[in-house]
Write a structure and sequence with these properties.
Length: about 220
């Protein structure tokens, strides 16, 4: 009974955390998209800006694949993470492990929502006007083709390369130039915490998963 109680608490914790991250992520994105022009930037401090950009790629604006391929890859990845979490939640694990897995799953799902629906429900963003909701299906892109909204920019160090640096001499250098969103941050923080503090948990559940496949 006590074990079942622990497992129920873990499931509830994972559910609440995933929903909370998704809601916070979408509120931020919609607020930015419907109140800022594309490329607009608001200075919060010298090292923190709210800068509205959109991208077709992965976290932090990286692009390696066609947009549709990337969207399908994201869905498969979220499905795999969700299945892994299902296996984890069948056992007793540390609360921290449940938290970081929930952060990674919710962060990945948050960006999928943009790709799935933003192209269907918003008109195209522009440097000249603020985007707004349109009738479902009459937006700027088809299903899975929507762009991901990014807004957090932390130029912690802004300087120039010394003249003697080959090819880069005299050019501007910005330490941490990517613009990212709340979902990206959850994924990154979750992965770092996972690698630093929860390797034993990962090894334990991996053994269980391998055992399950062998039984089949």
């Amino acid at each position: 009974m006590k074990k079942n109680s622990y497992l129920s608490q873990d499931r509830l914790l994972a559910f609440v955390l995933i929903i909370a991250i998704l809601v916070i992520d979408q509120i931020i994105k919609i607020e930015v998209k419907t109140n800022m022009c594309l490329g607009e930037s608001v200075r919060v401090t010298d090292w923190f800006y709210i800068s509205f950009i959109e991208n077709n790629g992965m976290a932090y604006g990286m692009t390696f694949f066609n947009k549709l391929v990337l969207s399908v890859f994201r869905i498969i990845a979220v499905g795999c993470i969700g299945w892994y979490m299902h296996k984890v939640l069948q056992q007793k694990h540390s609360t921290g492990y449940i938290v970081v897995l929930s952060m990674i799953l919710a962060g990945a799902a948050g960006n999928i929502i943009d790709s799935m629906f933003y192209g269907l429900i918003f008109n195209a963003s522009s440097p000249f006007y603020v985007s707004y909701l349109v009738p479902f299906g009459s937006g700027y892109a088809s299903f899975l083709q929507g762009k991901v909204v990014d807004m957090f920019y932390f130029p912690l160090i802004v300087t120039t390369y010394p003249d003697w640096v080959p090819f880069k001499g005299g050019q501007e250098f910005v330490f941490f130039s990517p613009v990212f969103n709340f979902a990206d941050a959850c994924i990154s923080v979750g992965v770092v915490l996972l690698l630093l503090f929860f390797r034993k948990d990962m090894e334990g559940i991996s053994e269980t998963v391998r055992g399950a496949f062998k039984k089949k």
